[in-house]
Write a structure and sequence with these properties.
Mean pLDDT: 90
Distance between the termini: 29 Å
Structural class: alpha+beta
Low-confidence stretches: 1-16
Largest sheet: 9 strands, antiparallel
Number of strands: 11
Number of helices: 4
């Protein structure tokens, strides 16, 4: 319906140079820590975390986990789903920043416009310090950074390879005209003892003159997480550097020209 694909599969390689983009495509940045909490921690304790900065983060909402059970057995009972209250989210006055305090962990999100890593990291760490002081996690079992970008590419677009270096390959025996796609790559990061999950798909555009591509970079580690605070946050710096390398490795110079 829209665009022709190139015939080559272009994959991740390290691109060491990074730069600041005045038209950043970032829609959401996330710092996430999954934890094991003492059994005595209750939802009331999580709710009380908001009081530390309630003037700045006045809006509170419940966080609900949904679990479903499905079967292909036609004689079995119908599919069911359960909902469990696992924590709260606190949203800032300007609605750009959201804290999640949950029984399974802590998440800090920054929505566009994104300022810089330093202010994002410092705000996340301040809230993490409040969270861990209140609930005293027994163990951190996962640390992650996630950056979700929306790239608005101008139409007409004949070849995604003009803008993206990581794209799916379509057999030359199939029509090359596509209206949608979803691609996920899971790439071990052996030097970081972690994993990169790279998601890419078409999303609704802001106007009819562009096609919008979601580029979702999720970097995490689940083993050998540093138990000292300073060392753990130094590892977040490594994740941030790798995130930048991944982003640069996925785009072309033409895309850089759009977002500079």
């Amino acid at each position: 319906m829209f665009w022709l694909w190139n015939k080559e599969f272009l994959c991740y390689d390290v691109f060491m140079v990074t730069e600041h983009y005045s038209h950043s495509p970032l829609t959401e940045a996330v710092i996430d820590l999954r934890v094991k909490l003492p059994k005595e921690v209750q939802l009331e304790t999580l709710a009380s975390i908001q009081s530390a900065r309630e003037e700045d983060y006045p809006t509170r909402q419940n966080r609900i986990a949904v679990e479903g059970q499905f079967t292909t057995d036609l004689n079995a009972p119908p599919a069911t789903a359960s909902r469990t209250h696992i924590g709260y989210s606190f949203t800032s006055v300007d609605k750009r920043q959201v804290v999640q305090a949950r029984l399974d962990g802590f998440t800090f999100s920054r929505l566009a416009p994104y300022e810089n890593w330093e202010s994002f990291r410092d705000e996340a760490r301040q809230w993490w310090d409040i969270y861990r002081t209140m609930v005293k996690p027994e163990e951190v079992v996962r640390v992650a950074v996630r950056y979700i970008n929306r790239l608005d590419l101008p139409l007409p677009l004949k070849d995604f390879a003009n803008y993206l270096r990581t794209v799916p390959e379509v057999s030359p025996d199939l029509p090359q005209l596509l209206s949608n796609y979803f691609m996920q790559l899971q790439i071990p990061q052996e030097d970081l003892k972690g994993m990169l999950i790279l998601n890419q798909t078409i999303v609704p555009p802001p106007d009819a003159d562009v096609v919008s591509i979601l580029l979702d970079i999720d970097l995490f580690r689940e083993d050998d997480i540093p138990d000292k605070e300073n060392e753990m946050w130094q590892f977040f710096e490594q994740l941030r550097i790798r995130k930048n390398e991944v982003f640069e490795a996925c785009i072309t110079e033409r895309t850089r020209g759009l977002i500079r």
